[in-house]
Write a structure and sequence with these properties.
Layout: H1 6-24, E1 28-31, E2 41-45, E3 48-57, E4 62-65, H2 66-69, E5 70-75, E6 78-84, E7 93-98, E8 107-112, H3 113-130, E9 143-146, H4 159-164
Parallel strand pairs: 3-7
Antiparallel strand pairs: 1-2, 2-3, 4-9, 5-6, 7-8
Length: about 170
């Protein structure tokens, strides 16, 4: 049976697009190709280094495990959000790459992991409230999506990275 490497290829392309874009901005960067938890690219300039998490996709919204970002309490089949996890590095930079079909058709959204946590908090809380605290298909699931439309203000927000690196 042939393996489907489509998702791996999209991730690889996304990481290399971020490295190339950082290079255009005078920043040295290298990808880690999935070998370092929470860090896909390391950027360096002015004696400072900066870890970056890259999310790459061709379509759709972003799916995460809300349990990573939130304190969730289970009571039988019911779950409730007790607050945001304190174990999240809110300042870790994320770059979402919407990989286009051809060169030059890519979109970049640059934001902090804290934005992800805030969006997940709002989406998961709202979903649970709408369903009385019980997820319809799998009550134990903590799957959550957040939406690219909610990231529009961070499109091409490369200044976040250049400011952190002092350039």
């Amino acid at each position: 049976m042939a393996r489907n490497f489509k998702n791996k290829l999209v991730g690889q392309v996304g990481e290399h697009l971020v490295v190339a874009e950082l290079g255009r901005r005078g920043i040295i960067a290298t990808p880690f190709s999935g070998n370092v938890p929470d860090i896909d690219v390391l950027a360096y300039a002015n004696g400072k280094s900066l870890p970056i998490q890259v999310k790459a996709q061709t379509k759709g919204n972003l799916s995460v495990d809300a349990g990573k970002y939130l304190e969730i309490k289970f009571d039988g089949n019911s779950q409730s959000v007790q607050g945001k996890s304190k174990d999240i590095e809110r300042n870790l930079i994320f770059v979402l790459v919407k990989v286009g079909a051809n060169s030059g058709l890519d979109d970049f959204y640059v934001y902090d992991q804290g934005i992800v946590q805030d969006l997940v908090y709002a989406e998961h809380s709202s979903f649970l409230q709408k369903h009385g605290g019980v997820r319809p298909r799998n009550p134990m699931s903590t799957h959550c999506s957040y939406y690219v439309k909610d990231l529009e203000e961070f499109k091409d927000n490369w200044d976040l990275i250049t400011r952190r690196l002092g350039i």
